[in-house]
Queue: 3 jobs
Job 1
Amino acid sequence: MSHAPAKPAVHMGLPLPNSKLGMWLFLGTEIMFFTAFIGTYIVLYFGSPGWPTDNNITHLKIWAGGTNTFVLLASSYFVVVAHEAMAAKNYKKAWNFLALTMTLAFLFLGIKGIEYKGKFDHHILPGQIPETSLQAIRQVEGKLEGYVNETTDRLVPGDDPVHIKLLNVSTEAGETKDPDKKRQLDDLGLITAEFNRFRAEVSANTLELEEAQQRIENLHHLAVVKLKDGREITGAYFPEEPPKDAHAGHGEAEGEAKHAHRRETGDVSLHRPEVAKETRLILESNSNTAEDGSVQVSHQWVVLSPGDVEEVHHVGEGVEHIHIQSVIPYGNLFASMYFLMTGFHAIHVLVGMTLFVFPLLRGSRLDASWADWVENSGLYWHFVDLVWIFLFPLLYIVPGNI
Amino acid sequence: MSEISHDTGSHAHDDTHHYVNYFLIFIALCICTGISVLFDVFKGGIPKSALVFGVMAVAVAKALFVMTYFMHLKFEGAWKFIILAPTAILAVGLMIALAPDMAMHYYTNDAPQVKWVGGEHAEEVAETEHSEHSEHQHEHGGH
């Protein structure tokens, strides 16, 4: 602009523009902001023996972190070239390099998004990770309860509270004229019965993680199987599947011993026995009311041949999405720190992108008046790069090696 | 405002006086990143402490490259020390202030997670949990 004021004869204060001084002061506070997180992370890491460091457990992808380091370095380089071009009054070149920086910022966030999606898919989220076997069992209990309550509330009409509706599930199934709905209500009744049995054992603290896992797998396979001879068996149904017994690798003798041990302690073995391929297995449960009024449940594996089966109705499909999550000691702290640090960094990336939008919107009208803007947002961008330079080794490489 | 500052800025310290081959700096930074990834690839072959030291040294080197050249700190006046020294001292001081809690605590950590990690089998740990308030607790105390 031609009417720019003349340079003052005496320049007071620091020999730099106020905007740049302001940016540097702000970056000074930013250094403390991020070191507080990093310091907290280091303290928590050393204060937690058994911090999750296995990348298969934490789902940290080193390729993603490494690529993002490179992406930010390149964008930092492009910003500095843009700044240089502004000083050389080559505004077209400056705009191009700002656009490249912006593109790389999007790329960074995209890769970050892939990483975050992996975390969400594997439930590596603060407050969602069981840290002991009991927590894992309680968590799956809560999820099943949520499913039962939600489905009951949906299927049984009326404004009653859900615990009243639960009592009316079988009545409702008897009264309804809609065969579809009747089947849904019957299924719900079966799942609720299994869930109540599960919950009783959890409350009695008699369930171990491995057993609970087997039970949940059986629940997934819960089915009503109609046989050709007219019988109907309800239970966990495993068709045409080689047994994936948890003790398959332990050899037969040990498996036998384990089996005997369970029988000895009055515990029913829910583990599928070894059977040949092409057979259908079903776990039949029978409830017997003893003389003193207590209900005793006995389980028994029934081996069927494919020819025996007339019709199979799968009941457990509705709860197939409910799994026991793997136990990760200190997983919640890890997830909190991971999302805190990378999340605040990502917010800084977004702020940097916002800063770049304004000169980019100028298009061909980008001129000397934007030189300070480009320089200061460039300084900010370099800082964002600096933070990632430290976060990358601290999050991805160092854990597990110190 | 921006016109004034631009004016004083471009005359008070003209960056074009300090020619920096930014591309060379960028290449150096890429090599540094490659070295940290190589550290991770060959982590089986080097002592763990050397790995951590190496990776962090590379990170500091990269940070210095960025600050010195990309952020032009090499060419700035002494004011940079006034701004950066207090923040650096406070940032490092924070970590030192937190250190007693991680390195010098008198108590033994008794979190359930520690029991899980310390136990040889998940089942045993589960048993410890179940019998937490019973007499069996002492039997499992040794794990």
Job 2
Amino acid sequence: MDASVAMYVAQGIHGLAYGMILFLVASGLTLIFGMMGVLNLAHAAFFMLSAYFGYQMLAWTGSFWLALLVAPVLTAVFGILMERFLLKKVHAFGHMGELILTVGVSLIVLDGVKAVWGTESLPLKMPPILEGLVQIGGMQYPIYRLFIIAMALMLLAILSLVLYKTRLGMVVRAAVSDAEMVNALGINVPLVFMCVFGVGTWMAGVAGVAIAPILTVFPGLADQMGMDAFVVVVVGGFGSLGGAFLVSIIGGLISSYGVQFLSQYAAVLMFVFMAVALAIKPMGLFGERE
Amino acid sequence: MKTMKRLLAVTIFLSLMGLLLASAVPAEEMKPKATFDFNKFPDMSDFDPNQPVEPGGDTIKIAIVASFSGPAAAVGEIYYACVAWAAHTINKQGGLMVDGKKKMVQVFKADGQSKPDVTKKVTERMILQENVDFLWGTNGSHLQKVINQVADKYKKISVNAASLSDELQEGQDFSRYSFMTTFSTEQIGRTAAYYYGQVRKKEKKFYILCQDYLFGHSMAEAFKKGIKEYYPEAEIVGEDYHKLFLTDFAPYLTKIKASGAEVVYTGDWIPDAANLLKQARQMGITLPFVDIFMNEPRFLVEVGIEGTKGLVNIGQYGIGNPAFRNEEQIKYHKAWQNARTKWKAPYDTVLYTHPSGNIGAYITSVYWLLSVVERAASTDPDKIIKVWEDDVYQGPSGNVYKMRACDHKQIGLLTVQEYVPPEEQKQSYNIPPYYWFKDCSNAGPVHEVPIEKNLPKADPTLCK
Amino acid sequence: MNKKTKSLLWIAGALFLLIYPRLFGIYYANIVVTFAVYALFASSLNLLLGFTGLLSFGHAMYFGTGAYGTALALTHIPGLPLIPAVLAGLLASLVLALCIAPLVVRVSGNAFAMMHMAFGQLMFVLALKLRDVTGGEDGIGGFDIPPFSIPGVISLDMTDPILFYYFAMTVIIGSLWLLWFFTKTPFGQIMVAVRDNAKRVDYLGYRVPHTKAVVYVIAGCFAGVAGSIYALFQNLVAAYDAYGILTSFVPVMMTMVGGVGQFFGPIYGAAIFGLIDEFTTRFTDRVELVLGLVLVLVIMYAPYGFAGFITKMRLRWAARKAA
């Protein structure tokens, strides 16, 4: 492959890889919102919490895979606890209450991780098998980034299958459109919601552990990632998994090709895209009318 | 005849030497007026930043204005350990004679939360409520600017030990109450260029990658200026400015790789510096970085010996090799390491292994301040200014710093450290265990860049 | 409480504010100015949120634009007097509000909140990027603060913190009074009706988007005034303080904690936040933890905020008295 072509291709794959990480974080956020109407501002904090859990698991067991498996589950448990004991109680006071509550929780998590793990940047090493580079058509590419792309695609596939092809998914979707009716049919709707919340935070947790080897684990991790994920959800349309997926990829590509061609304005491009998209479609590209 | 010739040769040689000495102006000018006194250095084994001994009564008060909460709280912790260490040194000696009274040094934490408005508020509180004598800060030129402004307003001394932007001590922003006790962007950029153009003379293609704000742009400007000055045949093959706290460096690194650069010059600090290096190595990019903050041991260890080999770090604390030239310096170094064995979180990490590098520079700045206080025998700002201007101080590392009177900037020699694997670090770390860090590359060959080659920018309206 | 005691209380309050800086000194005077700026900022947001039911995650846009407007005017126009400098900030916010209003008045709920976040963040990254104009992270600072002067009558040095306190408090209390007055006008009543039942307002023949637009622009202007005073007070405007996401969140949280939909809610909220900040930063590094706990506890146990809590207590007291 010609060197400059290789560069453009590499930028494309970088965009995809970053887009996939965005998607992992954003999918949980959009799922929770779509199903339950809760805008979870603590989502990014859970993402960070999971990275810390992952660091700890790796430190204890030495296994990245165990960390990837356990940390998101632990995070999901925290998410479920928050849903069960806090969020549910304030549901009666509408969106505003939920917003304030989740901001409060995210502040507590932020200070909590500092109390437990300190303020330093902690390393989370990738497993040796994913280290190194692979040859693609005469171009070298880090295996780990390809692994992230593959994992995100797999999760998307499983998630869509469950949601659209199983009975469980049907119940979830039905509960979203008319919770009372589904409840009357004898299905435990609060339980369904709790599960959805758990799955949503679990996704953020997976993203947290997955991204940690590329970044450092430190108390600012949530801020670093949170805003980008939020943009994806907003532009994709709240609650739209497909929208989040598409916009994640667009966002990833904008950021990598933006650096390549319009380096000066790379940081602004995503927000310009968001502002334009929302000015045209206020509910996001795939959002439904309220 | 032969003797005549010989005599002539000797005369020529001597006069040449004289000329050389004369051109290295500062020799006389840089003669220390005060030196860190190892003889008075007390037993510091009881020092613990977790349980600081707070002196009561009438004290010399220093407020550290920095982030003690929020994502950047690590910065405040490092500052605190350093300032408290220096204060403890003096207190164990019985304090300083100030305004006719023996006074201890008391350290305050002022949490500016990395926000300009909060920084202003806490700085005012320190002055108006706690009656502090000195403000000591901080990371971020925008925050240091606020501290300097408040200091100027209430006529208190502000010590800038961590904001590197030359602009802080220039034009409108200059205040006679603020002193910059750190190297500056201009010094760093020119030192890097000097090293590559006049010392190393090897790589010719450079790429500039800095953070997209005042500091990053100043760093880049300084390097470009230095290249013009010291290495005109070199080429800047590209420059980029990325947003702060960037997550994905891959697009920039791909561009750098395609540009054919041989060295990447960066002013990034943690976490950007860490992520940049990590992601570069993960992508198989082995280019050396010339940097100032890519020296935090924790992530260097993570990247490993191989990945950190060839990094070039510019520092202000030490002097050339070897790092330890006498028993007293070794004793001082060991005193820190001995005390530190008892420290608990957050001070129990590898970051605090050596009282040198950034930590050494922060500590030295406080020693210098307190030495000025001792000689002024007062905390009165005007008396302090009088002593500090044109003062020359030798710190524990043996490096000598001068406070330029016209704009209150620190001048001194800088070092360029080439990172090598542990087994080669002996040339620098010349005491057991003969390496700085076991699991990463670190300073091996160290080159001094003399003062006259790295002088910081001088605002012509201030420095005539 | 009858009218007489009420007005007596008001007079006592005004007198207290008047002698306050003499009693407590510069530091506490500055704290009150900060509180007052946020009280006005949050009150302007409450006009949208509490009275019209529009939640904005980008209200910092107007605060920041007001601040930059004043700072830029003072930097670039030599000899600009004080009041026109404040008006410059107001005008900047007004123009921005007029540009954005047509885009946002037709949506509500989450779309409204998110669009504001989008525009707010766009302003933020632009402020960071256009360093030549805004100074980026470092911002614009050190501009001359003109004295408050009526030619031939008086000239007060505004760099004196105590004198500035009087100026800032006068402007802010005046603005708050205007806001309060506005909610009591017939138009203000329509505004509340839009929140409660927009359709009915529509049927009654009032045009909902127009009503919203007017409220929106007014809210933007008052946020601009708050920003302008803030710029004068800090003598510095930087991107993070002006447009950061936190600057948009803080007034929302203040309003919620103080009591949404009540005129004094955001003022209580600003006071509570000020107190929390003052105490926590003195005694602990765990600022976020305390703030987080307060938010969670408030929303769990006092969801109508401090104002709601007072109303409840008053009702209980009245009930007991009646019994």
Job 3
Amino acid sequence: MLKPVHRKASLFLIALAVFYLILAYRLESFTAGPIGADTMPKILGWLLILLSVILFFFKDQETEEEKQSRRIAKNDLIKMAGVLLLTFCYIFLLERVGFIVTSFLFIWLCSWFLGYQKHVKNIVTAVLFPVVLYSLFTFMLGIALPSGILPF
Amino acid sequence: MKKSLVLSLSLFTVLGLAACGTENSGSNENGSASGSSGQENWTPQQSLEIVAPSGAGGGWDTTARMAAEGFESEGIIDKGIGVVNKEGGGGAIGWSYIAEKAGNPHHMFVSSPPLLLVPLNGQSQYGFEDFTPIANMISDYGAFAVRDDAKWDNLNELFDDMKDNPEDITVIGESSPGSMDHIQFVKIAKAAGVDPQSIKYVSAQDGSTMTNLLNGNADVYSSGVTETIEQVRAEEIRVLGVTAEERLEGDVVSEFPTAKEQGIDETFVNWRGFFGPPDMTEAQISYYEEKFKALSESEHWADTREKFAWNEMYMDSGEYTQFLKEEKESMQQLLNELNISGG
Amino acid sequence: MGSLEGILSGVQLAFSFQGLLFVFLGVVAGTLIGMMPGLGPISAIAIMIPITYNMDPAVALVLMAGVYYGAVFGGSTSSILLNAPGISGTVATTFDGYPMAQRGEAGKALAIAAISSFVGGTISVILLMLFAPVLSNIAIQFGPAEYFALMVLGLTAISSLADGSTIKALISAVTGIMAVTIGIDSQTGTTRFTFGNPNLLEGIDFLVVALGLFAIAEVCALIINRHESPERNGSIGSLKLTKKDLKDMSGPMGRQSFLGFILGILPGSGATIGSFMGYISEKKIAKNPEEFGKGSVKGVAAPETANNAATSGAFVPLLSLGIPGSGTTAVLLGALLVLDIQPGPLLVQDQPALFWGVIISMYIGNVFLLILNLPLIPYIAKILAIPRPMLISMVIMFSMIGVYAISFNTFDLYLLLIFGAIGYIMRLFKFPAAPFILAFILGGMMEESFRQAMTISNNDITVFVTQPIAMSLLLIALLSFIVPIVQNTRRKKAEQK
């Protein structure tokens, strides 16, 4: 019964709506009137449940091709996870190490990881792009990006 | 393929950690250097950073940028001064950023009454007690405006009407309930005998406040003095009262009556000043006090004040702390009566 | 009449050496800032404040206005090339601009954007000149009840943003409004769904959602197709527009100049809503609505005309009433006060040269923008010739910095990744992202204005039908909801026969 993917999606959405509703019913409302901070969230929660139930009973109209598009090769999945991990590192280090160094590392390593083989070009771009952006932001526009370990 | 990921990541972290290490040791050295350089004289070891806990263009941001500009162009501080925006949580994000800089007095932030109100509303874990008040620089006041054809001629008539028909009078302001525009109105109205809870306050945060006053959706507009000037000149609106102690100086504003002269013994100051991280030494505080005082007394700053229609209100660290304590108590009381607190 | 003299002195100002120089500098700076990740008109103006500190007020205003519409002009570039909208006013441009660029017609898409921006900007300035005083009185009639009605009208368009399942579009929209309920509730000060996290108190920034759902989700798709080499190198930068293209564009450009302008006048509406409404209304009246979302010429022309027209519209209440209609014009108003310019009902009388000078400089500025941008397009479009792995890294960094430059808070960067993941999952399961983002924009305003109206009327729900403007808008909303359903059922019946 749960085979069609839209039914799984529907159940997930119902779970989300229930979670949202639980929080909504726990909201305190200070206004005396009938419409408070909790009115809209409650309506939204119930609406989402209603829509998800309708979705559940819809006919499965997915073509084989569309199903295929959801299947991601293991190889690609690894690449995505890797890029995600590199991005986490980027965020984590941005304010600690500074914009230029972190961005350089990110562009260089991420491009390399995704299979870019021209190392010289890679490094040159990875240096130039952040430096230009940083100078524009910090020196011309007066919007200070984190300088981190570099002295300027 | 996997190898290149592992390699990338490890390279990234190693380089990053190495960088982190140098940064930390660097700032530690600075900290100890400043500690050992004696209690009597302290000077900054590196460039200074002023945090505006809001986005670009607002009141905090402008104050911070103009102060930084003043320090530099007047040659009061010879280190570089950078202004950094830390927006979020009505200021809470910027405050917690500075709270983490304990022991590094090269960071400051600019703030105003929300520093009292936001924690009282339970929306920030840090209040002014968690920082070192350095100096207050300027003040601004609230104004209560009505349409030019409104039936009230002064605050007392308005408040008397409010006592009788609270549901007929809508007060509009920019900030959310329990914050500045709301509280300044409640504070004055309460002193005139209006029940704070009966006040019908609507918050419009998309710049539509003046429109709603003019088209009749709102009856009273609670805002800063400057926002009202142009519409008063055009005879679209009238200002029934301002929250200042005495009449303000200036072209149009000197005609605005104060609440006080109408027999309502209450004021509201929108102060604005600078705060440092917790645990600053005496020497560090007095260094900054001196610099801010010099700025406050300069021609340049007088010029800036005039341009932005700010009023002079310098307080040193001691006065400021005392002032903030008293302000906080009075805000706390108001919020309790409004039944908004701790949310 | 005095106004003719005023206009003449305005012409003099606008064509003076200083006037020309600063409008030029303004639009160049504006375009550049608009192209930068995360920087839109608000930051552009805020950045100019210290620079104009000691300038002649009229020239300073010419500069500020140039920066403002220049930034809106430049904002479309990253939407089209990278699916990464740099400002909220150009999100709708991604819907067709990016598919077009994917098809190897990046230069064409950019050219359409530039030309429509120019037309929208120019026509709306004419409207600004002719109708500013009349229209400002309409703008001022808009209170919470009218806003609520306008937002409802906007939301009825969600079904038209669905490609495929309407139910999925609706679910996407409901979750979009859910996302905007996070943060401090403006009407009571209650904190909602923040899980005690102070970073969520002010809600989620629009750009975090937009860049996540569009740019980051697209990155995921690019990673899978990373080996595809950009083989269409040769034609990427070609600006060639066929006669048919021009014909297709002319309708949307004409109509959206007006619609965008009017939406721009309404306080709190502005370029974002203007561009969405522009896109949606063109799709509704188009003969081939199914082309929208797949790289339609009209789909690029409509939002780009509308957002630039809305920018001029926003000057109406600012210059003629002294009322800021949006966050951007509020910052602009602050900047003007510093320059001792008091925008308001008296501005035309007190300083006619300044008033008309700025308006006339806006014509000149739009011409500059077009002349400057068209020759640059082939070079800018070459960004797409960058090898995929490098492009992916750069798009991620571009989005990161875009978000970081708004709040300077790394928390928002994690949120960006979360919305990127949501966006990608939505794609896999064929939930459209456009209704989510539209509901995110309109939903918050809809709730706020509904509750404001209810508070003002002491909870009397009839305010929405007793006020003529609100009632007519709601009626149009109702019709635009019912008519397609009726048409559909009729068509089905006809088919059965």
